[in-house]
UniProtKB/TrEMBL annotation:
Pfam family, one: PMT_2
Cellular component terms (Gene Ontology): plasma membrane
Residue ranges of coiled coil: none
Source species, domain of life: Bacteria
Lineage of the organism: Bacteria, Bacillati, Cyanobacteriota, Cyanophyceae, Oscillatoriophycideae
Top-level enzyme category: transferase
Keyword Cell division included in the entry's annotation: no
EC number in record: 2.4.-.-
TM segment ranges: 12-34, 113-131, 167-185, 197-222, 242-259, 302-319, 326-348, 354-373, 380-398
Residue ranges annotated for the Glycosyltransferase RgtA/B/C/D-like domain, each copy included: 95-244
Topological relation to the membrane, as annotated: Multi-pass membrane protein
Record-given protein name: Glycosyltransferase family 39 protein
UniProt-listed GO biological process terms: lipopolysaccharide biosynthetic process
Subcellular location: Cell membrane
Amino acid sequence: MFTSRKTLVRCGLIFFIAVNILYFLYAAYFQYVWHDEVFVLLHLSGHTIDELTAVLFDGRIKSIGELKQFQGINLDRGFPDTLYSVYSGPNYDLPLYYSLLWILARIFGNSDLVLRGFSVLIWFGLLWAVYRLSFQLFKNQKIALLTAFLVFISPRFTGYALGIWEYGLYAFIATLSSFLFLKALESSHSREYRDWLLYGLSIVAGLYTHVFFIFIFLFHILYFFSNRDRFSELAKKYSSRIWLGSFLIYSIWLTRIFYRRVSVFSWSKGRWPWEKLIDRWITTFAGFFPDIPFIPTGVASFTNYALVSLILFSLFYLARKTDRKISSFALLLTGIPFLGLLILDIVLDFRYTVVGRFYLPSFIGISLAIAFLLSEGLQYYRIITSIALVLLTIFGLISRVPNPPEGNRFLGYGSNLPNAYPIINRSHKPLIIAESWLDGLPLIQVTDPNTEYLFWKPSIKISLPTLQTRFSDIFILTPSEKLKQEIERSDGRLKPTENTALWRVEK
C-alpha cells in the first residue's frame, strides 16, 4: 500500500512537471515583450538610455534591424557595457540578474526561448528552495511537499516564471537565503563554517538582485534577535560578521547614488486612498490562490475576502500551535517585506504595496502557514484537506490552459498596445510613428521585417506627402495633442483603428 502510494505521488509529480514544461514552452513562444522587459533588454545590449534616445529621436526613419541593436546582446558591446548601463540608469537596478542573463544570452543567443527559459529554470529552482525551507523549518516532509505544491499552483509565482526580469530570481534567493540561514543556525560544529559561508554568499547575491531584498536582510536580523537566547555563541559571532561584511560589499553599488540621481520605482509615487488601497491588498493576497473559473463578478469579491480570511486564520493557527522559533520565522517572513513597504508608502507617499511582486517573499511565508494548516490543523478532517487539494489542482491546471496566441501575446499592462501588431502586419509596407520608445520598441519583436519606425519629438517636422509615397500605411501610437497638431499641419487626418492605442493617417 505504501509503495503504491509513493508511486502515485511520483507519477503525479512527473505529470505536473510535464504539464508546466509544455505550458512554459508555449507561453514563452507567444509572450509579448512589454514595458519593463524593454528596459532589461536595453541594459543587456550595453547601451544606455541616453545613447538610445540620441539615436532614436534624430529624425531619421529606422528599420527593425537598426532598432534591434538596443534589444539584446550585441557583438560590439561587452559585459562591462552592460554593467555600466545598469549602473548609470535612472532606476535603482542591481546587476546580478543582468550578469547571469548576459552570460546565458552570449552562449545561447537572444531568442525569447532562451531569455524566458532562464526565468523558468529559476522558477523550478524556487520550488526546490521552498521545499528545503519548509522541511528545515517544520522537519516534516508532508508539510514541505504541501508548501512546494502551493507555490507550484500559485499564479502569484507562475506569473513571474516567464518574465524577462529579476523578480523570479528575487523570490528564489530570498527563499534560498532563508533556508541557508536556518541551516546555518542549526548546523553542527564541523559544518558550521561552510554553512555560514553559503548563507553569506546568498545574502550578497540577494542584495545585488533587488533593492527590496533589504527587507529579507532585516527579517533575518529581527528573527535572530527575537530568538537569540536559543542560539550558540558561535552563531552570534558568525551572523554579526556576515551581516556587516555583506552590507559592506553591497555598499560598493551604493556609490551610484553619488554618480547620478536615481529613483526606486518613481512611477509608484503618490499614495492611493485607503479604501482603494485596502481593496487592492485583498485582491493581491487572494491572488496567491488560482482563479476560480466561471465565478460571477459579484461572488468573486466575496471569494477574495474568504481567501484572505483563510490566510489570516492560517497565520493565527501557526502562531498558536507551533514553537516560537517556528512561528516567529513564518510570521516575520510574511510580515516584514509587506509592512516595510507599507511604512515607505506612508512616510514617503508611495504606493509600493499596490505592486505584489515587490513583496513576493511574503507569499512564501503565507504558503508555509497554509501548508501547516492543511497538514496539521485539518488532520482529523482529511476529506476537507483532500477536497481542497483536488480543487486547487484543478483550478491550477485550468489556469495553465493558454489563451489564443493573439490574446496571450499581449498579456500584461504597460505597453497600452494590446493586439496592435495584427493590424499593422496587414499592411504591405507600414510606418509606425511613436513618441515613446517604451511603446515603439516592444513592437519590433512582432511586426513584419518591412515595418519601419519614426520616433517623434516636437522639434521634428513631419512631411506626410513624402512619407505617403514611401509607405502603404502610416500608423501613430498613442498620439499626444502636439503630435496630432503636427499631423494636421501637414494636411493629414487621423482615424482611430479598432485598437484604441493605434491610429491611422488617412490619405
